[in-house]
DNA sequence: CATCTCCGTAAGTCATGACTTACCGTAAGT
DNA sequence: ACTTACGGTAAGTCATGACTTACGGAGATG
């Protein structure tokens, strides 16, 4: 029924637009918290909380550098997401094709 | 900055575990609402509301059949998701590789 | 037509979670 | 050692949204 709590946390983390904005911002490379907060209309602690959620979901990595903490996208997290989506995708396509087939057969029988 | 409200609605819809359970349930093929509600510990109206959210996010298709309404996964919705993830994925991998490279170069310089 | 099943909508309740300010560590610079 | 920048945590507020029950409409069945 569930693909595990990991995927669960991942999708929950991605559900928030601000967190996706953070991910987008990190696409070009690692950044410290202050830089991330400067681009967003929310307070720095709020950013910290979002980063925490993303990290616990396995989507971010942290590398302390002096007094700063550089956040970067975790390839493993994205990989898990893609794996999940690929599964849903394949099954859905197969199911869709089968349904379309059945539908076409039924229509052909009817007309 | 945003990939559009469509992707926004899609991720929001996927953020709820019950809705992902509905998607999982529909992977094998279209089902009417009563069947979907039977598998979940929530009321049927709650299921209807989730189905509405998923439909508006472009993730589900509806095909009325008499008094029933068959819900099925919308391939286009999943496709949009994959496209978005592919973009994030590619950029992140490139950024990660670049960062790792810089890190390795710095480490080599230091030692 | 009467009835029954299927299902969407409305209204209201309640939990979750996204923000705020205030505070406290930790590391670098003087 | 003192100060300053960075950033995580705590506590509290407030909006969002996930559920409930009650209701109404639309199609099948007698």
TrEMBL record, chains A, B:
Pfam families: HTH_5. The keyword Transcription applies. Coiled coil: none annotated. SMART domains: HTH_ARSR (SM00418). It comes from the Bacteria. Keywords: DNA-binding, Transcription, Transcription regulation. One of its GO terms (molecular function) is DNA binding. Residues 1-93 form the HTH arsR-type domain. This is HTH-type transcriptional regulator. It comes from Flavimaricola marinus.
């Amino acid at each position: 029924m569930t693909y595990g709590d990991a995927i669960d946390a991942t999708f929950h983390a991605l559900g928030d637009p601000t967190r996706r904005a953070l991910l987008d911002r990190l696409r070009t490379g690692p950044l410290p918290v202050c830089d991330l907060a400067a681009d967003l209309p929310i307070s720095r602690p709020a950013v910290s909380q979002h980063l925490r959620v993303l990290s616990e979901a396995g989507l971010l990595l942290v590398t302390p550098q002096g007094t700063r903490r550089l956040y970067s996208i975790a390839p493993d997290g994205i990989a898990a997401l893609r794996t999940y989506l690929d599964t849903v995708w394949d099954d859905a396509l197969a199911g869709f094709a089968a349904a379309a087939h059945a539908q076409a057969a039924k229509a052909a029988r009817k007309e």
